[in-house]
Amino acid sequence: MQIVQSIRNGKTELLRVPSSLGGGNGLVVQSVLTLVSSGTEKMLLEFGRAGWLRKARQQPDKVRMVINKIGTDGLLPTIESVRAKLEQPIALGYCSVGVVRHGEGWEPGTRVASNGSHGELVRIPRNLAATIPGNVSDATASFTVLAAIALQGIRLLKPSLGETMVVMGLGLIGQLAVQILRASGCRVVGLDPDPKRVALAKEWGAEDWDGSTEVDGVLIAAATQSSEPVSQAAKMCRKRGRIVLVGVTGLELSRDDFYKKELSFQVSCSYGPGRYDPFYEDRGIDYPKPYVRWTAQRNFEAVLQLMAEGKLVTEALITHRFPFDRALEAYEMITSGTPHLGVLLEYPDAPKIETTITVTPRRASGKPSGAVVSFVGAGQYATRVLMPAVKLAKVHLKTVCASGGTSAALAARQFGFEQASCDRAAVWNDQETNAVFIATRHDSHARLAIEALAAGKHVFVEKPLALTNEDLDALCLKLDEQPTLQLMVGFNRRFAPLVIEMQKHLTRTGGKKAIVITVNAGAIPKEHWSQDPELGGGRIAGEACHFLDLARFLTGSEIRGLQTTKAEEDTASLQVQFADGSFATILYLANGSKKFPKERVEVFYAGRILQLDNFRVLRGFGVPGLTKKSLWKQDKGQEECVRQFLDAIEKGNVAPIPVSEILEVSRWILKAARG
To answer: Which of 211, 264, 427, 556 has the fewest CB atoms within 10 Å, counting from its CB?
Structure first.
């Protein structure tokens, strides 16, 4: 079981999920206790329960993104995208104590504190777990993550022996910060509007502020939309004092307050260095200690050592305990206004381990002789695009398999699949499943396609097909062994209705074509997994392949040459030559404005021009019978791409895209990516 919350309406529920098998750089941990971070989790609950207008007011940056998307993609696709985002529940919790069930390099049964969510069996990054010393109780260790947040803020505050520090906001993090600062030899002032919390902080050695003493630094652990805590902190500080924010406040700073005293202000990032870094979290690559002494994991270890030495105590912070099966009562209590601090959830000793669970009772397929579909992967593209398209086809939906049990269960429930699983064998060995959609990270596409073909399944692979020529060669060998099976890659743009319209006009005239495809892709962080050469292959291999296939489709001619010019890894020009003398220039750009259309296709031929803007508007210049054709909403051909694949299985049709073209485009795009 897992606790999840709807972002759309704030509803919290206990969800039955399949058990993860672990693998990679993750640990599978059986929960013993989890601590509800009432500040963060209450804020999420209140955000979910808020109306659309209040949600918008709380996230103005997201509102601007929505407005820009309306301008480029249209109103209906934007509404659908926002609704899909809000419909995705999230797993709650990040303060966990449990025992290791699986994990490379970890002894089964080891007690660990981690950022695991509220669930009976959770999968966590190995670098976000730490072994609990023998003399530290489970209840005390459940505060490890919150204490690490406090510790990281204190490290940035750089206190020294004898200094006076203020902790503003005496919730759980504030109470823990008071103790850590006292252990560091500091005089500590504790501030909170709740006198009971102030009294508790005094038990750890906190003092009242006399109103006149200038302090050396302020740690703000408050949660408010007001900027008053920052303003008050500035007034309390001496000249060149330090202010660190670990909570959430308004940030309308007074320049005069900071200017005259030369104050420093810094926002602390969670548990410490490594948090949100995919290399550290997902790939388990640690920072070298001589250069980054205190990482997130090493902060966990430091607070656990303080607990072991009796310098960080938590018994007085625990106000409520609930069995896990009554967790929803805990959340009702938190939101009801009942005074509370530490709320613990206690888990059963022997949870039921099921790697595959039944989600939706079996239903007769709308097409008994057609495809029986399972998915491997349940990420954003799978749930927002591919699964809705498959559901529209009214085929038999069998299993959703994903490494995370929560995502598999949520997707299976939303779209009506029979099963959710964390074990791919549940798909490969299933006699009913005859078509598998692979929507995982790019580096696994070729390997999983080979496994699916070996299991006798038709395969739809989200692009790219492979990241290396060696993987393509291995896939070709497997295809030769299974000549009756369909292999499809999600090159959906050739199926877009306005692209089909373009092709009709081009076919009538024939001749050589000059094609310009401008992709205003926009920047994404360099650390995003798709930019990683090993995981994602980079954006040229991972995304520009769409447009090479589109040019191949519009010319109807084999690719004979390709040259790449790069300004950056994700900003490049591809010059493509075709066997019939046509050529294409594909501009894949990450350095443009989002206000410009995202994708534009222009074809110059026989004294005529076709111009397609963002798959919504097609214009003809000198084209008989075509001046302008518009759609109510953007259509990139995803639904038609999926429909034709499933129809080919049901009716025994030829492949929607010839395998020879798929392999041709795949090999040339790898050459372009190496550029």
So the answer is: 211
Residue 627 placed within a domain: yes
Do 338 and 383 sit in the same domain of this protein? Answer: no
Express each pLDDT in 408-444 by its tens digit: 999 999 999 999 999 999 999 999 999 999 999 999 9
Q: 276 in a domain, yes or no?
A: no
Query: Does one domain contain both 328 and 416?
Result: no
DSSP 464: P
In degrees, rounded to 5, the angle at the alpha carbon of residue 658 between the alpha carbons of residues 654 and 659 is 115
C-alpha dihedral (44, 48, 51, 57), degrees to nearest 10: 30
Kindly state whether residues 330 and 366 are assigned to the same domain. no
Examine residue 670 and state whether it is found in any structural domain, yes or no.
no
CA distances to 166, 207, 210, 267, 583 from 192, in Å: 11, 12, 15, 20, 69
CA-nearest of 310, 290, 658 to 486 is 658
| CB distance 72 to 595 below 8 Å | yes
Q: Are residues 575 and 550 in the same domain?
A: yes
- Residues 127, 179 within the same domain: no
| Same domain (yes/no): 321, 251 | no
Contact between 16 and 421 under an 8 Å Cβ cutoff? The reply is no
Domain count, the chain: 4
C-alpha to C-alpha distance for 592 and 521, rounded to whole angstroms? 8
What is the reported pLDDT for 551?
98
**pLDDT at residue 363 in the model:** 60
Distance, first Cα to last Cα, the chain: 48
| Nearest Cα residue to 436 out of 365, 425, 21 | 425
Q: Please answer whether residues 221 and 197 qualify as being in contact, where contact means their C-beta atoms are separated by less than 8 angstroms.
A: no
Q: Which tokens belong to 133? A: 């010393």
Report the distance separating Cα 373 and Cα 434, nearest Å.
Answer: 7
In angstroms, rounded to a whole number, what is the distance separating the alpha carbons of residues 90 and 320? Answer: 24
Q: List pLDDT tens digits, range 232-250.
A: 999 999 999 999 999 888 8
Pairing of strands 599-605, 559-568: unpaired
Residue 280 within a domain: no
